[in-house]
Amino acid sequence: MNDKNYILPLNQFVEHFFLGSSSRLTKAITNLFATVPEFKTERGMYDHFTSTFNKLKIFPGQKFVINDPTGQAIYCGMYPAKFAPEESQTAAGDESRRTDWSRIDLCIECKLDSTSQDPFDEKTLDHSPEAVTRRKVLGQILWYAELVFRHQQRQFHYMLLLFQECARIIYFNHSSMVVTEKIPYATQGQKLSEFLVRYGRLRKPEFQGYDPTAVRIDKTDDPHDIHSLVHEYAEKCVANDAEDHAARLFRDSLVDSWPIWRLQVYDEQTESEHWFAVGQPHFQASHVIGRGTRGYVALPLQLDENGELSVPPLNKESEPTVPFMYLKDAWRIDHPSLQKEGFVLQALNEAGVKYVPTVLQHGDLPGQSTLSYQKWFILRDKGECKLKPHQHYRLIVKEVGKPLSEFRCGAELVTAILNCIQAHEQACKAGYIHRDISAGNILLCKSKSGKWLGMLNDWELAAKYIMGEGIQVNAALGECAGTWQFLSVNCLLDKHRIIDIPDDLESIFHVLLHFAVRFLPHNIKDDAVQLFLRRYFDDYSHSYHGPTSSPAKLAAMTNGEIDLMQLTGGKIVDGTPQKDLLRFYEYAPPPTEKDSEPHNIRPATHPINDLLSTLLEWFKQYYALTTRPSKETEASRAAARQEWDIADLAD
């Protein structure tokens, strides 16, 4: 969160981050905070404020609700009255309401102490708290905001943080948080009340942060409504072909706990709008601040005879006439040095690059960019802007892949990795380098022959590349692109390094190793696999410049082997610990009736061992070359040694 938030006075906050009418209310409103009692518990605060807000009836169509589903955490917020969670009882007879994160309009968090529980600190440079209790509250509100963004289609979201004698309003979007200074009830309670009432009376959902290009498809009593038709279409497609991977994924995404959405994709090339029905995301990135990428298996919608959007028709054999597609929804980094992913894929498709997605439609959603980045340059007159500009963007591709983790055997895993390398090589020749290879960016895709092959996905951080001339500098990110767990050692050692072909190839190796350790048999005990993965992929070392490569990954690249000694204690030979190198095995054959001790059957060595050993040796030689002093440096050192005589040191 460093440098990802800034604090403003209430009047500036309302002027720049409240999108409702700038005119004042025609009628004076009650000061909601005029008689705030002294609270002894947070529950007392929630009861008081929700009761006060609801009784005054100044929020038409809205209802404030407290939810305490676990007895450990209290969730509170403003809902549309017709969708507010209803009271119910637990098996023990206690009152219980379930928070509906897909419907909540305004989150409210109450804390007793405005100092020890304040998640923002004006005294620090980046306003981040240092005390443990304050960091805990910051984690809470970030988690609540993430739940809202995860379950809704949002551009931004407001949250109200109430203390004993003051409050803060928090604005979240994909670039940052913007927070008001503490608002004392005694002197600014009327202004805070006015903000809340104006917010509750906003008539345009986009002013409350909702995405106008996303329409929720609710279930009705009509058996022929679009909600029912989407479910019926999915079931018929699966019944017609149980092996249809895309149809099964789409059907499985239609769960009762998740809304169905109608999403618009604006295709910039044809300047046309397309609508798709989607259920629960197939993939969803964590955290609010960032690209917020979501991936859906999507059903294209068409106009029916009445001019209404509906599901496409099935043919006489109940086969789909329009295939399912994959929809990627992301808040891309909007910078001249980064091209839109659809443009990159279009160039790769036109160049005939294999094993990459086929783009069908793509485009920015007009008017949906992060306001906090734009306002930084108006409201902050000093310091470098660490925020990134994000623009809402949707992309439709033809292929619906499945995670690489679903490979069926070692040969299929290695084939997919080979396809990824082939795609990478062809893409570099076509003028683009990927720069963000990770376990989630290599998929399995079914070919026309029915064979599952690899597909190199997610080209949104790709950069232009000219063979023999290196990569063009990308100023948008400020540091290495990519995913920490799979970045090359060189990139982890130097966060400003410009990713080149050797770095992407090393990332591909790390992906191969990751899945091999997770799913193939080897000499790591089952209960120690997670420890190995954490030490190799997640861990880090401290340096002068912050976190750097894990010792395990650094040792593997520089030594050309993966030694498990620190994990296993090593092999003991004549009382001395020896190296215990990572080794993979074929599955042991099933025991026969003659096998009295089947556990003593020695499994055959897996062919992947030779591949990994060869690759590790290549990386070892590469790192030896890149870290070797230049000839000029060696010559200078040799000359210096000749100038000195060991006897001189004794003088």
Give a verbal description of the structure.
Helix content is about 30%, strand content about 20%. The protein is an alpha+beta fold and about 650 residues long. Among the domains are: about 5-210, tt1808, chain A, CATH 3.90.1570; about 215-400, no CATH class. The strands form 8 sheets. Strands 1, 2, 3, 6, 7, 8, 9 and 10 form an 8-stranded mixed β-sheet that branches. Strands 11, 12, 13, 14, 15, 18, 19 and 20 form an 8-stranded antiparallel β-sheet that branches. It has a 3-stranded antiparallel β-sheet with strand order 21-23-24. The longest helix has 21 residues, at about 410-430. The protein is globular and about 80 Å long. Mean pLDDT is about 90; it is low at about 90-95 and about 595-600.
Summarize the structure.
With 651 residues, the protein is α+β, with helices and mostly antiparallel strands. The protein is built from 16 helices and 30 strands.
